[in-house]
Amino acid sequence: MVTKLLASRGATIQELNTIRKALSLLKGGGLAQSAYPAQVLSLILSDVIGDPLDIIASGPTVASSHSIQECFQILTTYNLLSDMPESVHTVLSGSPVEQATQKDFSHVHNVVIGSNRLALEEAKRQAEDMGYFSVLLSDTVCGEVSTIARLYCLLIQLTCLSATAGNDLLKDKVEGELSSLVAKLALPGLHLRDILRASQVEKPICLLAGGETTVQLRGNGKGGRNQELALRVALELHRARATADGRFLEKYEIVFLSGGTDGQDGPTEAAGACCSQELVGEAEREGFNVEEFLNNNDSYTFFVRFQSGHHLLMTGLTGTNVMDLHIVLIRAKGRD
Predict the structure, then answer these.
(1) How do the domains of the chain map onto residue ranges?
(2) CA 157-249-151 angle, 5° bins
(3) Is the per-residue pLDDT at 100 higher than 50?
C-alpha cells in the first residue's frame, strides 16, 4: 500500500526504497548483519539510476545512508503522511536509524553484474553491427514522461536539423530549448556534441538512452511509463511536424521505442511500445483521439486497439530488470 501510494504520486525509485528500508528488518543492510560473521557475496542487478548499492533492492547487504527523518520528509513532500497506516507511523516514530559503520560490513562483497549502462552498451554494439552510427546519450534519464517526451522530440529535431542544409535559425532555437531542458533535468553525461557529430555521417543514426521515468496519474486507464512515453513522443513529433517550421521532419524516417528490460510495463502484458512520427495522424484517420487516451493514462488500451497492437513491444517476462531502454532510429528517406 505504501509504495503504491508513493508511486501514484510520482515518487522516484530512490524515494520508494528509502521508505522500504525503514520499514524492513532485512533491507538497509539487515540481511548482511543477520549473516554476520559469515562471508557474504552479493551479485547485484541494478534497477536504479546511478547504481547506488544502498538503494538497489533497498540494499539488504549495504549499510543504509538514510535516516527516519528523510522518510518523513518524503511522505510530507507527496502529502501522504496522514494517509499512512498506523503501523507505518509506529515504526517511523521510533528513534532515528543509526548509520552502520563501514567495519560492520567488512564481511560483505557486493558486485554489480548487470546494469542499464551494460544493456545500453550491448544495444549500441548490436546497432553498429546493423549499420547504424550509434550514440549512447545517457543511462540516467529520469523525470515525468511528458517532460522526457519533449526531450526526445527536441533531440530528434536537432539531429535532423543538423543533417539538413539551412534552417540555422530554427536549429539554434531547438538547440537552445534542448540545452535548457537538459540543464533543468540535470542529466549528467548527455553531450549535445555527440548528436551534432552523428548528423555529419552518411549512416542511419541510432540514439540510445536509458533510465526510469515517472507518470503522474490523472486518469483510471491502463498503461505503463514506457507505453505512455512512446505515445507522448508520437504526439510531440506530430505537433512539431504540423508546424511550418517542422516540415523538414518529413525528409526522415523516425522510430522511437521505449521498453522495460523486465518485459512488463506497468500492469500490462507489454514491455513497452514504439512509434513513428506518422502514428498520431494515422490514428486520427482511424478515429482515435490520442490526447484523450493520454489524459486518461490509457496508453495500453490505445496501442491494443490501434492497428491490432502492431506497435506494442511484447517480449514476455525476462526474469531480470535493469530499468528501461529508449531507442531512436533516424534514417534519411531514400537512403539505403
Answers:
(1) 2-114, 116-332
(2) 25
(3) no
- The answer to whether the Cα torsion of 100, 102, 108, 109 is positive or negative is positive
Q: Which fold has domain 116-332?
A: glycerate kinase, domain 1 (3.40.1480)
- Is 135 in a helix, a strand, or coil? strand
First to last CA, the chain: 52
Closest by CA position to 134, among listed 49, 179, 226, 197: 197
Pairwise CA distance, residues 83 & 233, whole Å: 34
Query: What pLDDT score was predicted for residue 201?
Result: 77
- CB-CB contact of 214 with 142 (8 Å): yes
What is the pLDDT of the chain when averaged over all its residues? Answer: 91
| Element housing 327 (H / E) | strand 324-332
What is the C-alpha to C-alpha distance for residues 320 and 56, in angstroms, rounded to an integer?
13
- Amino acid identity of residue 174, one-letter, is V
In this predicted model, what pLDDT tens digit does every residue of 44-74 receive, in sequence order?
999 989 999 988 888 999 988 778 888 899 9
124 pLDDT higher than 50? yes
Only one residue has cell 501522504, namely 80
Q: Tell the residue number behind the cell numbers 506530430, with chain if given.
A: 238
Q: At what angle do helices 145-162 and 225-242 cross, to 10 degrees?
A: 50
Query: How far is Cα 50 from Cα 177, in angstroms, rounded to an integer?
Result: 26
Average pLDDT value for residue range 15-26? 86
Q: Which helix (H) or strand (E) holds 144?
A: strand 133-144
Residue 173 confidence (pLDDT) above 90: yes
Residue 95: pLDDT over 60 = no
Q: What is the C-alpha separation between 149 and 237, in angstroms, rounded?
A: 9
Task: Please state the rounded mean pLDDT for residues 146-169.
Answer: 92
Using CA atoms, how far apart are residues 304 and 291, in angstroms rounded to an integer?
Answer: 16
Q: Contact at 8 Å (CB) between 175 and 41? A: no
Do 2-114 and 116-332 fold alike per CATH? no
Top-tier CATH class for 2-114? alpha beta
Could you give the CA distance from residue 93 to residue 139 in angstroms, rounded to a whole number? 36
Measured CA to CA, the distance from residue 299 to residue 302 in angstroms comes to 5
